[in-house]
Each structure stands twice: as structure tokens, then as C-alpha cells.
Amino acid sequence: MFSVSPLSTGLKVLTAPIDGTASVTVMVFAGAGSRYETNAERGISHFLEHMFFKGGKKYPTTKDVSVAIDSVGGTFNAFTGKEYAGYYVKVAAEQVELACDVLSDMLVHASFPAEEIEKERGVIIEEERMYQDTPMYRVGWDFELLLYGDHPLGWDTIGTEDVIRSVQQADFQKHKDLLYTPDNLVVAFSGKIDAAQSQDLAARYFPGMNGEKGRVFPEFNTFGTERVMLTTKKTEQSHLVFGVPGVSSQHADHFAHKLLAVILGGSMSSRMFLNIREARGLCYYIATETDSYMDTGALTTRAGVDQSRLDEAITAIRDEYLLCAKDGVTSEELQRAKDYFKGKTVLGLEDSEERAHFYGKQALLYPKTRDVPEYFAALDAVTEKQVNALAARLLRPEEFRLVVIGDRNDKDALQKLIV
């Protein structure tokens, strides 16, 4: 079970206990992802995530932050996505006050030292170059650019070098003041902890969060018109993403969307894995997944294949989409997908970090926070007819998109493969 209780400031405090664990994760969620950025700010959300670790009042340097957590064997990290960012510390339960102390000092008293900004510019530029040199990652970002176009959902979270090189201390403070406000934050506690303890800790360590959210992200309305993106690069493999526009996290077909992806390529018994990897030996990795934002989404299949077999792989993936749209899924496949999804969820939620993320993200973004039984009930309610109708609606040739990074320069030929 979980509980959510706001402080007098409006800050939501979520508690998700776990029986039989000796750890606690404290995770702070902010509605401050890259989707909130303007074109002139591209990358500030991710850069800000880095800068929060540069110290506050009590822990004034990166070393002080690291030593505090390392000295008790804890772990800490952060992430920035399109719609939210998160910061967490995971420690033995008796060290939970230290976790709160470090996180609150980072977020409430961040000073964004100018000299640290200058050093971190180089770190982030090298991070961006690392992704450019890793086609397996880069190809997914390119697919979002192809699908969502010149919209914050289509922009790389890491941003542009122009912004990374130019952003200043005042820019970070302004962005923090706009979005790191009590009405736009959730503090999630998970593990060996109860609601009363969580409330007490949040009230003592996070009273300094104040103000009101000053920005909302722009709605998404129109998908990009291009169907194929090709980046010619000397690589050992061609890396591809083949996909279609999908449904949002708030759509009535959200769970059908997830289950359709599992059936197509979400497991080692999925269609893509068995028919393309095992039967044809076309690839080492292949997977189908969904990305679901508040007002849109995508269903994609990614793979890495030998350069000489790229056309064969694209055709095989396309044919699996077309077959699923035409003939639908079987009742056995659907039940297996439900059981797989529930099993994976149960295993993940044994970890306090995963549990904090599962509930905290919902509490921050969604109108309703589902407990695990309710979440599973929504999965179980999905019918074969519903999945088949969704497949027929989404998996149409006129919606197919393809991104390739590899040693090819024939975009027109690739275009012909997806129709």
C-alpha cells in the first residue's frame, strides 16, 4: 500500500513501505523535464540536474555530498526526462535522516557556483558526444525528432552546445524558481518506513521549498511529416528504430498499448525475438517498447543488424506489424503478456528505489495514483478485442516511421521499404 499526504506548503509526501527490507529510498520528483524548455533554453533542465550536486550550505561541494552518502554505503543519483526530473538517495533505514539532509540541502540551498558551471560545461558536452558516438542510444533520440519534429518532445534532453556553453548562474536560479515549487514536487519515501515518519522528515527537511509553479509545457498536436531519417556513419552494425505514433499515458488504451508492445517484442518469447532473431538470426538485440507522455506516445521496435542485412530486417519488422494489424493477437499471447508484465512489476517493486519511482511518478504527473492491485486490475481488464482494435489502428503503413544509423546513403531506397 501507499499513502499521499501534503504538507501545509502543498508539497506532496508519498510513503510506500516494503515489508522485510532494511533500506529506504528518498526520491524527490519535479515537474521540470526538458519538455518545459523554450528553444533558447534547450538543455537547461539536464544541466540543472548536474548543478544540484555541486553543493548547498551544509554540503558546499560535490565532494561533501559524495562523502556524506558514501560514508554510510548509500547510493545516490538523478535523472532528467521529458516531463519530469528526479533526485534520490538510497541508504540503510537508520540513515534516512542523512538522506533527507543531503537532498534538502542540494535542492533548497543550491548555490550554482560560477566556477562549477564552467567545469560542468565540459562534462555535459562530453556526455553529449558520448551519445553521438553510441548509435544504439542515438537512434532512439533521432526517432523522437522524426516523430515529434521541432517540439520539445522531439528535442534531445541533453540540449544544444550553444545553450550548454552560454547558460549562467542566473539562468539556473530562474529555472529552479519557476519549477521547483511545492505544487510541482513530490517527496517519495519507500522501504522500511511508515507514513508518520515520512511526514515528520519531510516537514523538518523540506520546509524551504516555496513559491508556485511558473510554467506549463506546450501541448503536442502534430506529428512530423518526414517518414525516414538516415544518418550515414561508419559503424559495424546498422542500428534502426521502426515505429508508429502511439497513445498517451492518459489514454483509455494505455494498458493495451503496453501489452501490444510486449506481444510484439517485449520478451524473449515475443514475435520479434522468435521470428527475427531466433528464426532468421538477423540480430543480437531486438525489442519493442512504448513511450507514453501525457498527451501522446509511440510504439517502436529497435534492433542492431549486419549492414548487409538491413533491408531484410526492416522488411521483417514491417511484416510483423502488418500481420499483427491484420490478424490481431491470440488470447494465449495476451494472457502471457499480462502475466509477464505483472511478474516484472512485482520483481521490480521489491526494490525501494523502483517502488519510490513507481508511485512518485504517478503522484507527480497523473490525476490518479494506482496501487499495485489497481494497476494489475487495469491490465487484466484489457481484452483481446481492445488490443486487436488498437493494433489495426496504429500499425498502418501510412503511419510507419524509420530511423537508421549506419553505413548507408540511400534514403530513398529505405523509404520504399516501409510503405
Based on the model shown, name its key terms.
six-stranded mixed sheet, 16 helices, 11 strands, 19% strand, single chain, 2 domains, Cytochrome Bc1 Complex, Chain A, domain 1, 419 residues, five-stranded mixed sheet, alpha+beta
Written account of the structure:
It is built from 16 helices and eleven strands. It has a six-stranded mixed beta sheet, sandwiched between helices. Strands 7-11-8-10-9 form a five-stranded mixed beta sheet, sandwiched between helices. It folds into two domains: 3-205, 2-Layer Sandwich (Cytochrome Bc1 Complex, Chain A, domain 1), CATH 3.30.830.10; 228-417, Cytochrome Bc1 Complex, Chain A, domain 1 (2-Layer Sandwich), CATH 3.30.830.10. The N and C termini lie far apart (48 Å). It is of the alpha+beta class.
